[in-house]
Amino acid sequence: MIxxxxxxxxxAETRIPLVPSVAKKLVSLGAExxxxxxxxxxxxIPDSDYSxxxxxxxxxxxxxxxxxxxxxxxxxxxxxxxSSLKKGSIHISLLDPFNSREILQALAKADVSAIAMxxxxxxxxxxxxxxxxxxxxxxxxxxxxxxxTHLNRILPMMxxxxxTISPSRVFIIGAGVAGLQAIATAKRLGAxxxxxxxxxxxxxxxxxxxxxxxxxxxxxxxxxxxxxxxALTEEQLQKQRExxxxxxxxxxxxxxxxxxxxxxxxxxxxxxxxxxxxxGSVVLDMAVETGGNxxxxxxGEIVEVNGVKVVGYGNLPGRAPxxxxxxxxxxxxxxxxxxxxxxxxxxxxNRDDEIIKGCLVTHGGEICHPALKG
Length: 374
What we know:
The protein is of the alpha/beta class. The protein has 2 domains: 2-119 and 321-368, 3-Layer(aba) Sandwich (Rossmann fold); 132-319, NAD(P)-binding Rossmann-like Domain (Rossmann fold, 3-Layer(aba) Sandwich). It has helices at 20-29, 47-51, 61-67, 79-84, 101-109, 131-150, 177-188, 203-208, 234-250, 271-275, 321-338, 354-359; strands at 2-5, 32-36, 56-58, 70-72, 90-93, 113-116, 158-160, 163-165, 169-173, 192-196, 212-213, 253-256, 282-285, 302-305, 308-311, 340-341, 346-347, 360-363, 366-367. An 8-stranded mixed sheet has the order 3-2-1-4-5-6-18-19, with helices on both faces. A 7-stranded mixed sheet has the order 11-10-9-12-13-15-14, sandwiched between helices. Helix 5 links the parallel strand 5 and strand 6. Helix 6 runs antiparallel to helix 11. It starts with a strand and ends in a 7-residue tail after the last strand. The mean pLDDT is 93.
């Protein structure tokens, strides 16, 4: 089986899909591994490091795409590249399937079996393949570091000859993977941390990290079978905003992490709520790429509202590209290893497998995932 890993064409993408240590693992399985020349350039990894572990280096992207039985990459392919893919081949990457209908249709038309790494089920067995969780973990850390750099004061309490400096107050909205990492990071930096989530079940996790759990009565809420927060009604969102307004006003940093998988991010902070915060404080919207939790956030920008900085940077894991790439490569390597047939020396697409059922989005010339049909 020929496996090909192309470079990411977006110059703003700092991550890479494969590192030499995982390339070595794939070669040891018996795969014929090819990488595009310059694959590791964003991380200053020379082609020779891949060659040293048995991978071939190709400079002809089009030919390599057309010859590959399996293509691994980081982000979704462009329409022109899809037409170059081999009929019956397998394509594995992040696909953002709920917002990429044309891409899915093109993959189906090309008779390519596409696996969306962002659709991996959140089960114990699939944990080592869970790209969303691994990247969200890094994003939560980066969110706190970024916020701290834009804040006009330090985070920890300090007792000095000039007097005692009180700790900054950090409010984390959403206690999923990213939120919990943000809580842990802010606590490690010495901040006083509060957190809120619509799922009461996470209160214990928040407290175990040393943060205070903010309680707001929203009526019936909960989470999906995959552990995601359920979407709130507009009435519940309004109650949530009212309950959080006072906490935000007292906070130096507010980080919003709330996302509903496959849907636009819920609007949690209004511009009026931001205006109610102290000048010099910081709001960081981690959901800005999916519509934003903060009314006045803008993707890729820092907006100032009444002296409050609203940070709307995208691709937060890409700000720690070495570890983000290592984790993505490990996730994707674990998937290949799990479904690799050593006798056939090939990746076997078992459609009866629960993990495959959850992440296979196109197969046999059609969009096959039940949630994406229609």
